[in-house]
Automatic annotation (TrEMBL):
Name of the protein in question: ABC transporter permease
GO molecular function: transmembrane transporter activity
CDD domains assigned to the protein according to its UniProt record, in alphabetical order: TM_PBP1_transp_TpRbsC_like
Localization, UniProt: Cell membrane
Transmembrane segments: 6-26, 33-53, 59-80, 92-115, 135-157, 188-207, 213-232, 239-257, 263-283
Membrane topology: Multi-pass membrane protein
Pfam families per the UniProt record, alphabetical: BPD_transp_2
Taxon lineage: Bacteria, Pseudomonadati, Pseudomonadota, Alphaproteobacteria, Rhodospirillales
Species of the source: Thalassospira mesophila
Keywords: Cell membrane, Membrane, Transmembrane, Transmembrane helix
UniProt cross-references to InterPro entries, sorted A to Z: ABC_transp_permease (IPR001851)
Main localization (coarse): membrane
Origin superkingdom: Bacteria
């Protein structure tokens, strides 16, 4: 248990930013919008959360600012793609490039700063229970929020009228519009939610995972989050399992390096991304499952009839 508990805690920490950003992207894609700018939104959320926390001394304000920053960038994406009818793929890629450059520019003045990570929950006696205590009752607020949002998203999509409307918009925007639903408005809200979740994921990286700012600190996690949505076939339950699986792979490659396994470090570092490619190939081989679960109108522009 001397190494199992720390390993599990590290896996949870590595999985949380993936789970936050992938949950937001899942809701966005369920509405029929494909936003490839997750990486850029995470970076902007990371630098915003860190900069505001350093400036104000309050991590709570930093987390809120990160979510707002993610929503602001998502709003730009929504305006370009939903109002001006720009190509969603090209706009998402441009958003990622913008996020990389903008976060590096703003973050240049915060390199070298270090802060205390978010405090973990501690319940007297319960958190001190061997093994179970630190794993279940010793996490920070954002870990519990990530799990809650997955459960809430699954409930929202399957048990609420608003969730069914969201799925209807993603599956057939023409039909949804014909019966009176505001397709553009619904997609705006879904895109803003995805931006807020990506901003929170970025804040987790800079405030908890590595409580400091480093340029391009997401290191491709936004792209893994996008792959997770496909891996989960747009189902929140599978998304939770997939996020922790990828988090486990990320941590295991670090532990393998520290254990002195005679494998090139470059190969170990690419394991999470290699796993992403392998999983996508396997999932893509079952086209029937993808067609049954993927939103039929994903990535397609919609122009309301005049």
């Amino acid at each position: 248990m001397d190494w199992i508990v720390p390993l599990i805690l590290t896996v949870i920490t590595a999985s949380t930013p993936l789970l936050l950003s992938a949950t937001g992207e899942l809701i966005t894609e369920k509405s029929g919008v494909l936003n490839l700018g997750v990486e850029g939104m995470m970076l902007i959320g990371a630098i915003t959360g860190f900069a505001v926390t350093v400036s104000t001394g309050s991590a709570i304000i930093g987390i809120i600012a990160a979510a707002i920053a993610g929503m602001a960038i998502a709003l730009i994406f929504a305006f370009l793609t939903l109002t001006l009818m720009a190509n969603q793929v090209a706009t998402g890629l441009a958003l990622t490039i913008f996020g990389v450059g903008f976060s590096a520019l703003v973050g240049s003045g915060f390199v070298g700063f270090a802060i205390e990570p978010l405090p973990s929950l501690h319940i007297p006696f319960i958190s001190d229970i061997p093994v179970i205590g630190p794993i279940l009752f010793g996490q920070d607020f954002l870990v519990y929020l990530s799990i809650f949002m997955v459960i809430a998203s699954g409930w929202f999509l399957t048990k609420t009228r608003a969730g069914l409307i969201l799925k209807a918009v993603g599956d057939s925007h023409e039909s949804a519009h014909a019966i009176g639903y505001n397709v553009i408005g619904i997609r705006y809200m879904a895109t803003l939610f995805g931006g807020a979740m990506s901003g929170l994921a970025g804040a987790y990286l800079s405030l908890v995972y590595t409580p400091m700012w480093a340029e391009n600190m997401t290191a491709g996690r936004g792209w893994i989050a996008l792959a997770l949505v496909v891996f989960a076939t747009w189902r929140p339950g599978r998304l939770l399992a997939g996020a922790y699986m990828f988090g486990c792979i990320s941590v295991l490659q670090l532990h393998a390096q520290s254990a002195g396994i005679n494998v090139p470090s470059q190969f170990m570092s690419m394991l999470p991304y290699l796993a992403t490619v392998i999983v996508l190939v396997i999932i893509s081989s079952d086209q029937t499952k993808i067609r049954l679960n993927a939103p039929a109108c994903i990535g397609k522009a919609f122009r309301p009839a005049q």
